[in-house]
Design brief:
The protein has helices at residues 5-9, 16-34, 40-47, 51-63, 129-144, 182-190, 199-210, 275-287, 306-314, 318-342, 358-371, 374-377, 391-405; strands at 67-72, 82-86, 92-98, 102-109, 114-122, 153-160, 164-165, 170-171, 194-198, 219-224, 228-234, 237-238, 346-350, 381-384. By secondary structure, the chain is α/β, with parallel strands linked by helices. The protein has three domains: 5-89, Winged helix-like DNA-binding domain superfamily/Winged helix DNA-binding domain (Arc Repressor Mutant, subunit A, Orthogonal Bundle), CATH 1.10.10.10; 91-204 and 392-405, Nucleotidyltransferase, domain 5 (2-Layer Sandwich); 213-384, ATPase, nucleotide binding domain (Nucleotidyltransferase, domain 5), CATH 3.30.420.40. A five-stranded mixed β-sheet has the order 5-4-3-6-9, with helices on both faces. Strands 12-11-10-13-14 form a five-stranded mixed β-sheet, with helices on one face. A two-stranded antiparallel sheet has the order 1-2. Strand 7 (164-165) and strand 8 form a beta hairpin.
C-alpha cells in the first residue's frame, strides 16, 4: 500500500523518486497556500511540470484528504476546467509561546487560521526538570482537549527565550541538562514532532507573515519584555547568523554601569532598558519614598513586577509613566545603533512593554532622532506590533508549517 503524504513527510530516509515527488507535492501545497486555488494547467505551468504528472500528484493529495476538487470554473473557450485548492482542516499545527510567568498555546490550520487558543496559562519558567515536566503537561492537556484527531497535528512549535538553535533542537538558556536535543526530549513526551525557536524570532516571523508588514523586505522586530530580543528580516528572509543566535540585542554593552545582567555580564542594554530594569527602578523609587498607586498595598519586601508598572501606567500613574519613558529613551538609544547599522525600512515594537503604546513609543522615537543619523533614519518607519500578545503563537504555528511543508 502506498504511503500517504504525511507518512512520506515523516520518512527522513526518502530518496530518489519518492523524495522528488514529496517536494513536488510540497510545491503544489505551497502554491495553493501562498497564491490561490488553481487548475491543473495553471499548476503545471507555474511549477514547470507536465500535466499528467501534475494530475497524478493532485490525485494523491486528494486521496490523502489534503486537496479538494472545487469543480468546474468559467472558461472563455473550450471545456471548463476544474479548480483545486487546500482543505484547511486536513492538517494542523500547534504553537507554544513560553513566557516567564505564563504560557500561550494555539492550534492553527493549513490556511493560517487560529482555531483554538489558550492564553495566560499560569507557569513559572525555571531551568529545572520540574519546569520542563510542567511545560510538557500543559501541552499534553491542550492536545487531549482538542476535538480533532491527534494524527492530524503535524508539528508543535515552541518558543523559548535566550539561545536556541532551531536546526539542532538545542536550547542553551533553558532545560540544557541533557545531551539529547530538547526538541527530541519534548517530542518523546508529547508524541508529535517538535521544533524549537527563539521567542523573539518567532514573534518576528508572525508579524512578518500575518501582521503589520506589507511589502517591506528589511525589517527589525523588537521584543521588549523582561528581556530584549530582536528578529531580523533581510531581503524578505529571517536572518539567523552563522550559529543561529542572531538578535541578542539586549546584550549589547551600551552602558557603563555595575549592574549585573541576566547573562552574567555588566553594562548590557537590558540592565537599563528592559522589563527587569523597569521593575528594579520601580522598587528603588518605592524605597526612596516616591508616591505611586504601585506602592499603596505593597510591603517593603514584596516583589514588583513589570506587569505591575505597565498596569499602573495604563491607569495614568505619573511615576509609572515616567519610568516607562526612561526605559523607552534607553531602548531608543539601542535602536538608533541598529538603524545606523541596518538602515531598515521598518522597526516594529512588540512584547509586553509595547502594549503601553505612546508611553514608550514617543520616548523611543525621540531618542532615535537624537542618536541616529538623520539621513539614515529618515526612511525608517516605527510601528507597534499589529499581532500584540498573539505574535508568538502565530509565529510558532507558521514556522512549523513552513518547515514541514515549505509554505511561507
Amino acid at each position: 500500500m502506498a504511503k500517504t503524504f504525511f507518512e512520506e513527510l515523516n520518512n527522513e530516509s526518502a530518496t530518489g523518486v519518492a523524495y522528488k515527488n514529496l517536494n513536488l507535492k510540497k510545491s503544489i501545497l505551497g502554491y495553493f497556500a501562498n497564491v490561490s486555488d488553481a487548475t491543473i494547467a495553471d499548476l503545471a505551468k507555474e511549477l514547470n511540470i507536465s500535466v499528467p504528472k501534475t494530475t497524478t500528484l493532485l490525485n494523491d493529495l486528494i486521496q490523502d484528504g489534503i486537496v479538494q476538487d472545487f469543480g468546474k470554473i468559467e472558461s472563455k473557450s473550450g471545456r471548463k476546467p476544474n479548480s483545486f485548492g487546500l482543505l484547511p482542516e486536513s492538517a494542523f499545527f500547534i504553537g507554544v509561546d513560553v513566557n516567564q510567568r505564563f504560557i500561550n498555546i494555539a492550534l492553527s490550520d493549513l490556511q493560517k487560521n487560529l482555531l483554538e487558543v489558550s492564553e495566560k496559562i499560569p507557569y513559572k519558567l525555571e531551568n529545572n526538570k520540574e519546569s520542563l515536566e510542567t511545560l510538557c503537561g500543559i501541552i499534553i492537556t491542550f492536545i487531549n482537549e482538542l476535538s480533532i484527531p491527534k494524527d492530524k497535528i503535524l508539528g508543535i512549535g515552541i518558543n523559548l527565550s535566550g539561545r536556541v538553535n532551531y536546526a539542532t533542537g538545542y536550547s542553551y538558556s533553558f532545560f540544557h541538562f541533557s545531551e539529547e536535543p530538547l526538541s527530541k526530549i519534548i517530542e518523546s513526551k508529547v508524541g508529535i514532532k517538535v521544533f524549537l525557536e527563539n521567542d523573539s524570532r518567532s514573534m518576528a516571523f508572525g508579524e512578518f507573515s500575518s501582521g503589520i508588514v506589507t511589502n517591506e523586505k528589511d525589517v527589525l522586530f523588537l521584543n521588549i519584555d523582561y528581556g530584549i530580543g530582536l528578529g531580523i528580516l533581510i531581503n524578505g528572509q529571517l536572518y539567523y547568523g552563522k550559529s543561529g543566535y542572531s538578535g541578542e540585542f539586549g546584550h549589547i554593552p551600551i552602558f557603563d554601569n555595575e549592574i549585573l545582567c541576566q547573562c552574567g555580564k555588566k553594562g548590557c542594554l537590558e540592565t537599563e532598558a528592559s522589563g527587569w530594569a523597569l521593575a528594579r527602578m520601580a522598587k528603588q523609587k518605592m524605597l526612596e519614598g516616591s508616591s505611586s498607586i504601585l506602592f499603596e498595598k505593597m510591603g517593603a519586601n514584596e516583589e514588583i513586577l513589570m506587569e505591575d508598572v505597565i498596569n499602573a501606567a495604563n491607569n495614568d500613574d505619573v511615576l509609572a509613566i515616567e519610568l516607562i519613558a526612561k526605559i523607552g529613551e534607553n531602548i531608543g538609544r539601542g535602536i538608533a545603533l541598529l538603524i545606523n547599522i541596518f538602515n531598515p525600512e521598518l522597526v516594529i515594537l512588540g512584547g509586553s512593554l509595547a502594549e503601553t503604546g505612546d508611553y514608550i513609543r514617543l520616548p523611543i522615537k525621540s531618542a532615535i532622532n537624537k542618536f541616529s543619523l538623520s539621513l539614515v533614519n529618515s526612511d525608517t518607519q516605527l510601528k507597534i506590533s499589529a499581532l500584540g500578545k498573539r505574535a508568538g503563537i502565530i509565529g510558532a504555528c507558521l514556522l512549523v508549517r513552513k518547515r514541514l511543508l515549505s509554505l511561507s
